[in-house]
Amino acid sequence: MTSELWAHQQEALDFVQSCLDKGPGAAIFAGMGAGKSRVAIETLVARGCTKALILGPKSVVRNVWSEQCSLFAPGWTCLTLGDGPVAQRMEAIQAHKGWSHLMAVLNYDIVYRVGVERVLKAFGFDAIILDESHRIAKPGGKISRAVTRIARG
Length: 153
Fold this sequence. Notes:
Oligomer: single chain
Distance between the termini: 30 Å
């Protein structure tokens, strides 16, 4: 990593680690610019993860994760797949199946499309990060149901 965490980021990282020690899952709710992406990346590294699926709205997919990855996880590849035909995006993910230290970044609106769940489940991600998780706030919604199925493998 390239710089020290801010105090509130370290506190968030400690909280997430504590949650993950007890079970699968943790959430950080903080304002924009608070460094949540950095905490997520630090968590991936600390937990020994090698393949992460990151879901977020299109604006976050395009503008945030690639930059954060290059700043705070320079040994990782950030596969940003926010645009293009669904089939091409799934082919791109499948082409990276054997890779290590990979973040595949997709927008929420793709997860319920035909064939996507199958590809994402088969990939073998060891972490899923939900950026701007209010997109899955409705448990019965199609995005929320699809994310749950992907997480359960």
